Sequence to fold (227 residues):
Amino acid sequence: QLVESGGGLVQPGGSLRVSCAASGLTFSTYWMSWLRQAPGKGLEWVANINQAGNEKYYLDSVKGRFTVSRDNAKNSLYLEMNSLRAEDTAVYYCARLLMAAAGPNWFDPWGQGTLVTVSS
Amino acid sequence: AIQMTQSPSSLSASVGDRVTITCRASQGIRDDLGWYQQKPGKAPKLLIYAASTLQSGVPSRFSGSGSGTDFTLTISSLQPEDFATYYCLQDNIYPWTFGQGTKVEIK
Fold:
């Protein structure tokens, strides 16, 4: 089970950290991911992080502003978001990323999401 | 970035109908494609990965096919619980990209 928290209202240019608590899975053995969905819109992949936290991939539009990290001792995944923009307003989902040896990859399960609203 | 074009964007169908949703990639992605179902207010759920592998626990009326650039999700006999929005996702090349979604509505 994955449970996100930390969403809320933040002003443009502000910062926020959202968290994802994992239970019922061996968290430290899996890649993890963040995805998002703007209100009434489709899904968008945001970031991936490997088991050790030393390999990360980001959506171009968040590179340099968002940082994904994890604490395996706490079974937790984080997304630190800085310089937030109105277009970052979305429900943010964490998901376990399953990866075959030579691809493909898939997300299962997903958390229930946490809403981040960027507005003045 | 690879563009994923889903069609149709919406469809109306009746219980028992056969439904087909297509997804076309702007370049070849092997079989690095998944299908996800999302119901209103809920998180997405994995249906199919590797283009045609049914996720454990997903009913066998769902099937996927395709490779390269053209992919299909088929629901062989639509059930009431299948009314939802469906998304394809390519995971071949970063940034991973979703199709725009197909909303399946009750006729």
